[in-house]
Write a structure and sequence with these properties.
The longest helix has 17 residues, at about 5-20. The protein starts with a helix and ends with a strand. The strands form 8 sheets. It has a 22-stranded antiparallel beta barrel. It has a 5-stranded mixed sheet with strand order 3-8-9-6-7. The chain has one domain: Maltoporin, Chain A. With about 750 residues, it is mostly beta strands.
Length: about 750
């Protein structure tokens, strides 16, 4: 690891040593208990433990933080609430978010034959496809963002890290909560949850969510959707059964639907040699609110449902056996009309590219965990099995025809396209794993030293077929198999009861596969990431300030990198590069309570990625290539003030600001996007008693992007024959605001 990372973190460690003296014991209480920072519990190591005792760089957002920041789905992380985590819609399609962490990501994981770089888990269940990740979240207890490779405990496809969503369980006590809200762009929200009293050892919880909003780019064609429309809803039922002492069985069923239109393709900077635009077109200067054409457009529909069975058996006070069984199904369609931004103008030619696609997937997973501890040893061992089948198709048609001069157009009564489909494929994946991790506290240095080692053995098998290309069957297929071991090791030392440091090393890998945009369904192998991490976790005196810091140094091997065919930008190939990047960086998380009721949180991430020039398999030339969605600097700052100015109600004020420097959106991106600051806020009047019912109400005013800042969330340099040769851009949401009512009984 480079010397500058050592010196920066060790300097912070020195400050923490001075602040947290050994004389302050774990039993010491702060002078003002109301001003103390609460303990944060995480399950990053498959057991409940304090965030401060877990030697991993983790960001945690609890249910209150998610509400204050207006996060109702994973796509709401787009503005940078967690600086090291970037959730960006693939070319504006919210149904297919790209999830990037520490600059590690891929922009085309929508293909069923390739995998993501960040693992997404809901209640310990791995979600195998990026499609479906845009659905509304249910009653969430917390979201844990585990930064860096998590190959030992979380397995394949977690080279960048993992996002673990933890739901609230049935309480076994009567309780009802509801939320109603309205806002601009005719937005409407409604949710409800009911906990029923425990009867015969059985507790039941029912939940429902709905969020709808009109689009903010108008489509002038009558009867058609606007761009950025969204309508998301879902329900979940959970049953918790305690048949005998120390045994807990929970079954959950969830079903969600996401009906959202794609983003609007803005016309950005022309590239060298760009042909003239149609005379009725001009480049867009920033975000627009009216489409350049009125075109056919309908929402893509994502239907997701799943069954989950969690069994937890406390074999003794120190040993726990856990089983997690899941079956999930996904069906996702996509309809994306570029309104003439892609195909070059020719007199009387068809245009208005309408990209249609569909994905169907089902998966089964089973995980067994044995979690235990002795006086000096904490351990977890497990078995994992995963089976996935998926199919997809894609088809492109044109929906308008220009006149001879490009000054007007007509909507075609029937879209024009070639043989259906342009491409279609199937894929099957099966993964088996055995894993274990143990932490030993030797009888040295007052039990302040902790040594951890872990290992995961994985056997992956994948195969697939390209069933059609340009409407005809093909002979192309792929087979992939890997047997590998991913280790990890860490050493942690408690300098005081509230200050510790750790040094961690580990690897993770992403499975190989095939590229369905390749004309021959070209296959590629696995990639591996190895990373060092040096961390500090410190609670300062009186527990009013908490500082966590981590410096990391990562190196790829056989990175999967795709290249676009300059003769046809809709085709590309994926290779395992022998010239992989190195990525290093720094993460800081600070929480402070300077006064009772006032809290400050700040996070900062510095990322420095070096991507060597690569050999383009199409041109045979060595070309410049960049890392995607890896801003050098990103940060988030939040202020919360909670006080009670009246006897009948309390008031909570929240304000957060998120910053990102520019980043690249594709490996061939010629220039950085613009940097941005996004300001969000929420003002809540709460604890309003509802008569003698025992219920309470709260009223909140909220706003996102309060200054109406516009920046390009993603862009793509589109070059080649017969296209406009320009940079397509997709912008962030404009200012949104509303009022929300919450009821609790």
């Amino acid at each position: 690891m480079a010397r500058q990372w050592h010196s920066g973190v060790l300097g912070v460690i020195g400050i923490a040593f001075a602040a947290g003296s050994p004389a302050q014991s774990a039993d010491a209480q702060p002078a003002d208990a109301q001003a103390a920072l609460p303990e944060v519990v995480v399950t990053a190591q498959k057991r409940e433990e304090s965030l401060q005792d877990t030697p991993i760089s983790i960001a945690v957002l609890n249910s209150d933080a998610l509400t204050d920041r207006g996060i109702g789905s994973l796509s709401d992380f787009v503005d940078g609430a967690v600086p090291s985590l970037h959730v960006v819609p693939v070319v504006g399609r919210s149904s297919m978010p790209t999830v990037v962490m520490r600059g590690i990501g891929s922009i085309d994981t929508s293909q069923i034959s390739r995998d993501a770089t960040v693992g997404i888990y809901v209640d310990g269940i791995y979600l195998g496809r990026v499609q479906g990740l845009n659905t509304e979240l249910f009653d969430v207890e917390r979201i844990e963002v585990l930064r860096g490779p998590q190959g030992t405990l979380f397995g394949r496809n977690a080279v960048g890290g993992a996002v673990s969503i933890v739901s609230k369980k049935p309480t076994g006590e009567w309780g009802f909560g509801a939320t109603l809200g309205v806002g601009n762009y005719d937005s409407k929200t409604a949710s409800a949850r009911v906990n029923f009293p425990r009867v015969g050892g059985v507790s039941v919880k029912l939940e429902g969510v709905w969020r709808k909003r009109d689009g903010w780019v108008d489509n002038t064609l009558a009867g058609q959707s606007d761009w950025y429309d969204s309508d998301r809803r879902g329900g979940r039922a959970s049953v918790l059964w305690d048949p005998i002492e120390n045994l807990e069985v929970q079954y959950s069923y969830d079903k969600s639907r996401d009906e959202s239109t794609a983003g609007y393709s803005h016309i950005g900077t022309p590239l060298p040699g760009a042909p003239p635009l149609a005379p009725m077109f001009s480049p867009d200067v920033g975000r627009v609110h009216r489409g350049r054409l009125g075109v056919p457009l309908q929402p893509g529909v994502g239907d997701v449902e799943g069954h989950g069975l969690h069994v937890t058996w406390n074999l003794s006070d120190d040993v726990l056996l856990r089983s997690i069984t899941s079956y999930r199904e996904l069906n996702q369609t996509q309809f994306d009309n570029d309104a003439g931004a892609t195909v070059a103008f020719r007199p009387n030619s068809v245009n208005g590219r309408y990209s249609l696609a569909g994905v169907a997937q089902h998966q089964f997973s089973q995980e067994l965990q044995l979690v235990g501890s002795t006086e000096r040893l904490k351990y977890v061992a497990g078995l994992f099995y995963y089976d996935e089948d998926a199919s997809d198709w894609a088809y492109v048609v044109n929906t308008i025809r220009f006149n001879a001069t490009g000054t007007d157009y007509t909507v075609l009564p029937t879209p024009v396209g070639g043989p259906f489909p342009d491409r279609a494929s199937t894929a099957h994946a099966r993964s088996k794993a055995v894993f274990g991790q143990a932490t030993w506290t030797p009888p040295l240095a007052g039990d302040r030293l902790h040594v951890t080692g872990g290992l995961r053995w994985t056997n992956d098998k994948k195969d697939g077929l390209m069933t059609a290309l340009r409407g005809a069957p093909t002979p192309y297929g792929f087979d992939f198999e890997s047997k590998r071991t991913d280790p990890m090791a860490s050493v942690a030392f408690d300098w005081t009861d509230r200050v510790n440091t750790y040094l961690r090393w580990g690897t993770a890998y992403r499975a190989g596969g095939a590229n369905s945009r390749s004309p021959t369904y070209g296959s590629f192998g696995e990639e591996e990431l190895a990373s060092w991490e040096l961390g500090l976790k410190a609670d300062f005196p009186e527990q009013r300030i908490r500082l966590n810091a981590a410096a990391f140094d990562s190196e790829y091997r056989d990175m999967q990198l795709f290249f676009t065919n300059p003769a046809n930008p809709s085709l590309n190939e994926t290779i395992n590069t022998k010239r992989p990047p190195k990525i290093k960086g720094l993460e800081l998380d600070l929480t402070a309570i300077p006064l009772p009721g006032l809290s400050l949180t700040a996070s900062y991430t510095y990322t420095d990625g070096k991507m060597p020039p690569q050999l383009n398999p199409f041109s045979g030339q060595v070309e410049r290539v960049v890392l995607v969605y890896a801003p050098r600097n990103a940060g988030s700052l939040a202020v919360d003030y909670d006080f009670k100015p009246w006897t009948f109600a309390a008031l909570t004020a929240h304000l957060d600001a998120n910053y990102s420097s520019g980043y690249y959106s594709s490996p061939a991106d010629p220039e950085l996007s613009s940097s941005y600051w996004i300001l969000n806020g929420r003002l809540t009047l709460r604890e309003i008693a509802l008569g003698s019912s025992g219920g309470t109400m709260e009223v909140a005013l909220w706003g996102k992007n309060l200054t109406d800042k516009d920046y390009d969330v993603a862009d793509f340099p589109l070059a080649g024959p017969f296209v406009n040769n320009l940079e397509l851009q997709w912008y962030n949401d404009p200012r949104t605001y509303g009022v929300e009512f919450r009821f609790k009984f």
